[in-house]
Write a structure and sequence with these properties.
10 helices, elongated, 21 strands, FBL15-like, membrane, 420 residues, alpha/beta, transmembrane
Length: 420
């Protein structure tokens, strides 16, 4: 039995091209493009490099890979050495996963990547140290990626200094996540058309140190701003912009002033504005092509301060008289006995044909509120209803967070106004 098993193993080894007993090495006889395709399936650059020990034919195959993936735990010196030895005509994708990476670790390989990369950079850092603020751990100086098409940086609050000069000539997609920005160069300078002439999609999420943001772009098509709690001033001049999403911004409880925003996007098709809104300080230019609008959640029950906040959100929807689709989010705050039903204060909606209704009921009956909205939407031809249950607590908690801070700010503003 053992002899049979051994005989089978020898046959398999020869068939696989290992060359046992002087057999033919069939794998090494394959052309380079087939070997490269095989190594790409590994999605692990260090493992691909270790295949060089199989035979002399494999010695430099890994260096021709157009994509390099470095998993968590890869020594930064090995990343730097691999980028230096890379011989492919173009590096179209570089993925680096770090854990508790410091700016010094990233600086070991990032400048080389900036010179070689012609495609996508994705650097994701997880589990960053929390013992000291990001600024005290130093900052990473981002080089200018002149040839890269897409850059995704998820740094887990590592400090980042943007390059003061140079153009991101071919950059079409930029995503910044969990970053602490430091001067002297501002994000506004980097992402505008003068330095990012080809930028089409920009996403800025959970970025600190961004109190004022101004972008002037002729190429930008999609813009997402999410969890920018300290943001207070926003200016957008984007003649080609089609999609704009502002979610959980302007929510810093320490700043009692109203957010200031000026949006000029005449080609805008989709607007998702789920943040503080005051018609006296948040201004939108004419948007004749707008087809879909999502507003801040509306509280079904509440007192005067909540009612005023609902009124502001409704004013945003009423600013656009004719749109195809309106998405309303109905949120039930805990009822404490003196709250009233606020849906009756909704007396007008835009002329729409599609209504999207998202209900965060939190155990409440939502029939009355939904029916009231439907009564004012006699022209709709399509209805979508999404019920967020208790299991979707993360979403509900996010909404509760922003509502509590915005309502708190509103109460303070009302108190100061009455005191005057």
């Amino acid at each position: 039995m053992e002899r049979t098993r051994g005989h089978r193993r020898r046959k398999l080894s020869v068939a696989a091209g290992v060359g046992v007993g002087g057999g033919e090495d069939r794998l090494s006889a394959l052309p380079d493009d087939v070997l490269i395709h095989i190594l790409l399936k590994l999605r692990d650059a260090p493992v691909a490099a270790r295949t060089s020990v199989l035979a002399r034919r494999w010695h430099r195959v890994w260096a021709l890979l157009p994509e390099l993936h470095f998993p968590v735990g890869t020594d930064p010196d090995r990343i730097r050495a691999a980028l230096t030895a890379h011989d492919a005509p173009a590096l179209r994708h570089l993925f680096v996963a770090g854990i508790e990476a410091t700016p010094e670790i990233a600086a070991a390989w990032l400048p080389i990547a900036a010179r070689r990369l012609s495609g996508v950079l994705h650097f994701k850092n997880t589990g960053a140290m929390n013992e000291a603020p990001a600024g005290e751990r130093g900052t990473l100086k981002l080089p200018c990626f002149e040839k890269a098409a897409k850059v995704v940086l998820d740094l887990h609050s590592i400090g980042l200094t943007l390059p003061p000069s140079g153009e991101f000539t071919r950059l079409t997609d930029l995503k910044l996540v969990r970053i602490q920005l430091h001067g002297p160069c501002s994000l506004s300078d980097v992402v505008s058309s003068s330095r990012c002439p080809s930028l089409r999609r920009l996403s800025v999420c959970s970025v600190r140190g961004l109190d004022n943001f101004t972008i002037q772009s002729e190429s930008l098509l999609q813009l997402e701003l999410r969890n920018l709690h300290t943001l207070q001033q926003l200016n957008i001049v984007a003649l080609s912009l089609q999609k704009l999403k502002v979610f959980l911004c302007f929510t810093n409880p320490l700043n009692q002033s109203q957010p200031v925003a000026n949006i000029s996007a005449p080609q805008l098709v989709t607007l998702d504005w789920r943040g503080a809104y005051d018609p006296s300080s948040v201004l939108f230019s004419e948007m004749p092509n707008l087809q879909q609008l999502t507003t801040n959640p509306l509280c079904v029950y509440g007192g005067d301060t909540v009612s005023a906040r609902n009124h502001h959100s409704l004013m945003l929807s009423q600013q656009f008289h004719h749109i195809s689709k309106l998405i309303l989010i109905l949120f039930y705050l805990p009822v404490r006995g003196n709250e009233r039903f606020l849906m009756e204060e909704m007396t007008k909606l835009p002329n729409i044909t599609i209504l999207g209704l998202v209900v965060l009921a939190c155990g409440h009956s939502f029939g009355a509120s939904s029916f009231h909205v439907l009564k004012m939407s006699s022209g709709i031809r399509e209805l979508t209803l999404q019920l967020v249950t208790r299991r979707d607590s993360k979403c509900a908690n996010q909404v509760a967070f922003v509502l509590s801070h915005q309502i708190g700010k509103l109460r303070t503003s009302c108190y100061l106004a009455s005191k005057k």
